[in-house]
Amino acid sequence: SAPFAGAMPQRAAETTPAESAEATAQVLFRYPQPVTLANGGTMMMPITARAIPAERLSLYQPNTQPRHPLAALRLSNGDSGETGLPPGVLTLYERLGGAAAYVGDARLATLPAGESRILSFAVDQAVTVDRSEQPSRTLSRATLADGVLQLTVTDRQTTTYRIAGAAGEDRTVIVEHPRRSGWELVQPSGGAAPDLTADAYRLPVAVPAGQTVTLSVALERPRIERFGISEMSPEQVRAYASSTELPPAAREALAKVATLRAAVADKERRVGELEREQAEIGKEQERLRQNLATLPRDSDLFKRTIAKMGEQETRLDGLSRELATARKEADTARNTLRDQVRGMTF
């Protein structure tokens, strides 16, 4: 049935149901005979009267109600030969003990022939849903060539729904699990493909009265990670070298890289220490020069300052030699790492 507006006139016109037809974007109803209505009057006119199959459901939408599903109906509009139904607001009743009891309102979009719609009208407080998520990561392939480590990684997002059923009756719960761009549904697997909405999978779950049912849903996404081995820290390389997901040959090669990378890090650390000491002495000498300008030349402090600056100059000469050697050793270690890495493949 469709919604009606206005109030019943004192004497309703006797009409037959309208003839319906589906246009491109709407459903049209035409009455077979003209209807006369007095000026200022109102009238209710039947446009269709037929039985439509309806299935009672519970629709779980996490973003709408995280703890309880929505009480819902699935309306099926017959075979392809039936007529579509127009959009409108439905008033729903349930027969209890021989009497009709109001249960809620639902908004119906246009329902073409041969299609179905799920309409929610209330919160199903008798059913409770607990949800938990567990991300994981699996390394499925690793290659090393030209100094680049390439990993084929599969990300997996597993969501577990624990559905506690109603105490007095069975339920069919439709779980709307969010779809994610680039991710594929891998669990549950087998059986018919789930119904899809614009942004969710619709997964049916039979929940017997008074029981708790678990549904596990898993999405997976493959992706590629690339790393320049020479630029990775020793800790990063050691982490991959100790990964049991890699074959022994790969772990052995990465362990060797980790040793070479650690040697480079030590050489670079020594260069940094010498450069910092050189900079600190330079700042100290600048301070001492400023002090000398204010000291009498024949004072003991002036002489001690000159002596200290002499010692610093001697140290700076030594630092220059040490720094040159350290930089050369760091370059050699980097070249060794680069050459070794370029020659590695697995």
Automatic annotation (TrEMBL):
User: Please, which domain of life does this record's source organism belong to?
Assistant: Bacteria
Q: Which residues form a coiled coil?
A: 250-336
Q: Which keywords does this Swiss-Prot/TrEMBL entry list?
A: Coiled coil
Instruction: Supply the name of the protein.
Output: DUF4139 domain-containing protein
UniProt organism field:
Azospirillum formosense
